[in-house]
Design brief:
CATH superfamily of chain A: Winged helix-like DNA-binding domain superfamily/Winged helix DNA-binding domain
CATH architecture of chain A: Orthogonal Bundle
Shape of chain A: elongated
Mean pLDDT of chain B: 81
Helix content of chain B: over 70%
Oligomer: heterodimer
Number of helices of chain B: 9
Largest sheet of chain A: 3 strands, antiparallel
Radius of gyration of chain B: 23 Å
Number of helices of chain A: 5
Largest interface: A-B, 32 and 33 residues
């Protein structure tokens, strides 16, 4: 049976990647308010995804206000697609063996 | 089949719907233009009345107010200034909930060509109106001949960043024109300006408000999906 990517399989990280897969980029605040996570929790998940090469961080200024946006990298997109494919394969296998 | 992660797979769809229908910048722009347009028309009307009745003091006050409105309208018509101010203002409205970017607007040569054609059509119909070739009753139906295709084109060319819900605006504009041609009532006298203001600003505000409400609903659905329990050992996956 194939293994699921542990970095993506964690619920919060899976949701972050899924949100990013639908758009070009989202801001830190959008992720925080949508997922309802604390700053520390969200920060650690984002850090983990960035270290895995699934996320790209873009920092900018609008006037004097700093903005942090997150984008899904090509590797992140491929990994997410592979994750869903693996999950489907596991489910199909589980249903077939019943 | 409905699986425990089905809700997570729906997340991208609701993120896009939320972003596509977030019409706060368009709504703010329309409100600014409508307020200034009503101000210019209203003060012009009141100023004209004051002048005709010999109230020179009142006339000067209304004239000054009119000039302030025109002065405020000019920078808002320049996209580099007005567009930036409206975007900054809308960013303030959304700063708490964050922002989503669907893509970058691609410079399309056809849009520029269509905008020039649109401006020429407006100019031609205004001149035709002044010369008395088009009566004020048929001004809106005539304008529908170029407003409806241009607005539809502009909304479709901005896909996927724009929402299909915004097509309601040109659709209502066309229906309004058909109803007038079918003999529907129009405003006369001092309310004449409403014949154009309702189809442009009125239907525009209505459509952007409907899209904005849908965007709020999409955000509500998105938050529910994003905060749901996702996958556990009980689902036989971990």
């Amino acid at each position: 049976m194939p293994d699921l990517d542990r970095t993506i399989h964690e619920p919060a990280r899976l949701r972050i990647l899924t949100i990013l897969s639908g758009v070009e980029s989202v801001s830190y605040n959008f992720l925080k308010t949508t997922l309802g996570l604390t700053n520390g929790n969200l920060g650690s998940h984002l850090d983990r995804l960035e270290r895995a090469g699934f996320l790209e961080v873009r920092k900018s200024f609008q006037g004097r206000i700093p903005h942090t946006d997150y984008l899904l990298t090509k590797a992140g997109r491929v990994a997410l697609a592979a994750y869903w494919a693996t999950l489907d394969a596991i489910r199909t296998g589980a249903n077939g063996s019943r | 089949m409905d699986t425990p992660e089905s809700s997570v797979r729906e997340i991208p769809k609701w993120v896009r719907r939320n972003a596509q229908n977030n019409t706060i910048p368009a709504l703010l722009g329309l409100v600014v233009f409508t307020v200034l347009f009503v101000g210019i028309s209203g003060f012009s009307y009141l100023g004209g009345n004051a002048y005709r009745t010999g109230h020179r003091g009142q006339f000067l006050w209304f004239l000054a107010a009119d000039l302030v409105c025109v002065g405020a309208l000019v920078p808002f018509c320049v996209p580099r200034w007005g567009g930036r101010w409206i975007l900054q203002l809308s960013e303030r409205f959304c700063s708490q909930e964050g922002r989503v970017k669907l893509g970058s607007a691609k410079p399309v040569r056809a849009v520029r060509g269509a905008a020039i054609g649109f401006a020429l059509c407006i100019l031609a119909s205004v001149i035709a109106g002044i010369l008395g070739l088009i009566s004020s009753r048929f001004m809106q139906p005539v304008s529908a001949l170029y407003v409806v295709p241009f607005a539809t084109f502009l909304i479709l060319v901005q896909r996927p960043m724009s929402s299909y819900l915004m097509l309601m605006w040109p659709a209502l504009y066309a229906v309004h024109a058909i109803l007038i041609l079918a003999g529907g009532p129009t405003f006369r006298g001092r309310w004449d300006v409403l014949n154009m203001l309702i189809p442009t600003a009125g239907y525009g505000l209505f459509s952007t408000l409907i899209a904005l409400l849908y965007s709020r609903y999409a955000l509500f659905r998105l938050k529910r999906l994003a905060r749901e329990r996702v996958l556990t050992k009980g689902d036989g996956l971990a």
